[in-house]
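Hi F.,

I've been meaning to write this up properly since the lab meeting, where we talked about keeping a consistent format for the predictions we share between groups. The idea is simple: the sequence comes first, exactly as it goes in, then the structure tokens exactly as they come out, then a line or two of notes. No screenshots and no reformatting. I'm using this chain as the first example so we have something concrete to point to.
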Amino acid sequence: MSPLCLGTMMFGPWGNDDRADAVRIIHTALDAGINFVDTADVYSDGVSEEIVGEALRGRRDDVVLATKFFVPMGEDPNQRGGSRRWIVREVENSLRRLGTDHIDLYQVHRPCAHTDVEETLGALTDLVRQGKVRYIGSSSYSGSQIVEAQWAARLVRFTPGARTNWHSHANGQLLVCTEVVGLVAGRDGTIIRLRAG
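Output, unedited:
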């Protein structure tokens, strides 16, 4: 995986509404060796995922594709959050918009105060088992929230035959938590993987 990731939050009505230009930008990044692309369902109300899907047509197998869920996707209170009901529904929407049969890294965009982490992890684990998602992660969990999720994953053995890999871009408190649960963090504080053993 390339050390740089192309973020696509501003592709669509939130930023660059010229789809052809956004596709060109993605192709330029891929041609330059960037093979990690990140988006989210909420970016331009799904338009960013559609643009990414269009740009990756014919090149999908060469890319590590990440997307996120959680933020409201409409007025309906059931169209948001970390509940099993929403995760199972929204992954299908993202797969359709992205034009793919799997997501390499599916991330919880924000922690959900209204849903137990075990419910969220259970739904995500089912998606991994079904082959719709390769890895799961978080986008903005604090160090303590990652510890809570990691302990829940270990106690219930959520991922099939392996521990859960949580990726996050949290602040300095993350490095303190890495020693507690055996996580390895990059120089910038990003969790990379679980330490073996």
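Notes:
The two ends are 24 Å apart (CA to CA).
Residues 160-197 have pLDDT under 50 and may be disordered.

If this format works for you, I'll send the rest the same way.

G.
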